[in-house]
Known about the structure:
Radius of gyration: 16 Å
Amino acid sequence: MAFELPALPYDYEALQPYMSKETLEYHHDKHHKAYVDNGNKLAAEAGMGDLSVEEVVKQSFGKNAGLFNNAAQHYNHIHFWKWMKKGGGGNKLPGALQKAVDSDLGGYDKFKADFIAAGTTQFGSGWAWLSVKNGKLEISKTPNGENPLVHGASPILGVDVWEHSYYIDYRNARPKYLEAFVDSLINWDHVLEMYEQAKG
Length: 200
């Protein structure tokens, strides 16, 4: 299954003022496209060209760094675009998700503080995550393109803290970007969809 660059699920202006048209053009059209192109080349060379992106991520982790980096970033970004929407964010979570956030993470305010802290304290490039592991929600952070799939968890929300995700709009104010992401961008419907799949 060759990797393909998905179209954005909204237009380039849709996430303004929290994420600019310029950021989306660079991030989606240049960075994500490069992960797709490099990932396809490296997957074919490794004999993994027919596998799903999730399988490539799991099988290349710790064995083929070049392939893993590109495949994992492709996986992360497929969902990153869907994890955002115009008029998103805030504390109105779908019922099942709210219940899990309350029982597993100590409520919305604590989730928000811990999720932003994970993204802020990820040194250098990486991601902050909300995942399901052993049936429970957990917050984590990973370096570079690494994601919870390789740690036995199912990611249901992730935020990209590579500089190309926020530098045009926020310069070095990463916490401000993370706050805008949580307050104004998260597409809780996509998070719920992934939560339901992960709970299976």
